[in-house]
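seq:
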Amino acid sequence: MTADARPAAPPSEAFRLRASNYSLLTLRLLSARPEEVLPALGDQFRRAPGFLRFAPIAIGLDDLDGQEVDFAALVAGLRKLEILPIGVVGGPQTLRAAAAGAGLPTLRPTGQKETEVEAPSPVAAPPVAIAPPPEEAPRPAAARTLLVEQNVRAGQRIYAQGADLIVMGTVNAGAEVLADGHIHIYGTLRGRAVAGANEDPEARIFVQNFDPELVAIAGFYAVREGLQNASIGRTVAVRLEGEQLRFEPLG
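struct:
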């Protein structure tokens, strides 16, 4: 090695793996037959264009009582509708195994904070005793309300994760607002509003001028064609009663 030779610099970091927790919509299958599920979804898409378009979803299996599912056909049909299935939740092990064979892993809920994940070493390390982690100090509560002070444009999606959502302007046609809690819109709702996105049936939607493409609470929804004309253009509160949405005038 000459006097000027220096060791080569290590390559710069190209990636990091993180364990993260995201809220997803769940498509609960009530029928095991893709030929029944897919046309029903397609019909809703025709009545509410853009609903769930390119949305990642989990497929819920708890309601199928072990019935066999053609997951390959289901996945192909969902992607044709521009829905992106990423995994399954619930159901028996036999169904989850069949889903894995079609590229749908089992998703497990987690409440953990985002953390770094180390890539596994090519050589297995010998087992070591691991002491229990120390108790974490309590963290301050996160903000419970997301405030949007401008109009929500067509094609825009706003999600208040773990919080209520307040929109001071108009939600235009083709826009979507979602919240795990309540939604308050102090302008006109012309697009889509989804409250209780984390399956909270107590969530509500309050709108100053009600003229939506779609509203939903905890997975139960109504599209524009199915709304009562008496509610259109009014100040309205939307709540869930059982499995039915109720529309109540305010003021």
